[in-house]
Amino acid sequence: MSLAIRTSCLDLPLPASDDRTVTLELCIDSTQALATQRSLRNALSDETRIVTVSVDYKRNRSRFAISARRDAIDTVLTAVMQALPEGELGIIRSHR
Length: 96
Hints:
Layout: H1 7-10, E1 21-28, H2 33-43, E2 49-56, E3 61-69, H3 73-83, E4 88-95
Antiparallel strand pairs: 1-3, 1-4, 2-3
């Protein structure tokens, strides 16, 4: 099973001044996407964008795309791992 997010899900408008943004993928065994997104929002700064990409009720799995400044990626990864240790981090993509 491929965990890659479809590119169209990541083609979200970014602020014009932000040319150093990365998007990372997070998968978690839960269909409680809103609760998971709320946990992420509480753990991350307001500058971080979180998008629910998909919820698979058959497999009990949700996928998220988290966009942040490239220089904040260490902080984002740490916050995600502390807030959702059961989460599975995936691909990190750079936007230019």
